[in-house]
Amino acid sequence: MISQMIGEVRVDRIVETQGPFAEASFLLPDFTPELIAQHRDWLVPRYYDDAQDRVIMSFHSLLLRTPRYNILVDTCVGNDKHRPARPGWHLQQSDWLSRLAVLQLAPEQIDYVFCTHLHADHVGWNTRLVDGRWVPTFPNARYLFARTEYEYWQQAIVSHRGEAPLNHGCFADSVLPVVEAGQVELIDNDYQFDESIRFSPAPGHTPGMVVVHVDSRGQRALLTGDVMHTPIQLACPVLSSRFCLDPQRSRQTRRALIEQCADSDVLLLPAHFPDPTAGYIRRRGDAFCYRDAAHL
Ligand SMILES: [Zn+2]
Prior knowledge:
Helix content: 10-25%
Number of strands: 17
Distance between the termini: 15 Å
Bound molecules: zinc ion
CATH architecture: 4-Layer Sandwich
Strand content: 25-35%
Number of domains: 1
């Protein structure tokens, strides 16, 4: 993704990994191959690898630079995290930090970290391993989490009885250390951060997920978190992912967001759409499709 300017706010993408991820029928339990046949002209090969039946996904952070603040939105999987249930993430070593450096930013210069929700692929770089301890990666940042999201996971962990840790154990290694460092602010799901950035609720995938609106000098963008994981969900908005805790609610949230943005000038910046990531929703018959920002 090339840098996008939304009025005075510059947006860049910091990629951790990108490529063929899960099988479509695994990621989207109600997926049918006919869907690809109907939308092949724009879905294949960019968003769907036909030969392997894999959805092409990206795991990235979005960096917002306003005239006052450097803000990271979502922090991927992270390095050194113990994630045995997901071999691709387990003890991962990526160049994410050096990609931040390419954008002329040191961790000390990040003012805010927003996590749209607290899944393991959105909180990882909140912390890094130093001398065997998880410490905040961004020592001068305030980390903003939605209160309902934080309290949901706090409660869920107390009542969790499974053998494997809930949510890959990310609450313990990527959330609690920044809480204990005194760097977290819990916010309402409906929250005006400053004159150009606000949060709004997007429940379903997780109970307290938020999306982030940027509105500067008449230009608008929407960081949609995991309201959608792949543009296949524009071809068929009823498809919720395997990872949605409330698939029905997720469906309603997704449908409303798609209707609100379709054929508008709102630039979408989803958390898992592969390069070039930024784009616009366009109606296509009784469904929708995705158009790169460059093709507006
Ligand atoms: Zn995710």
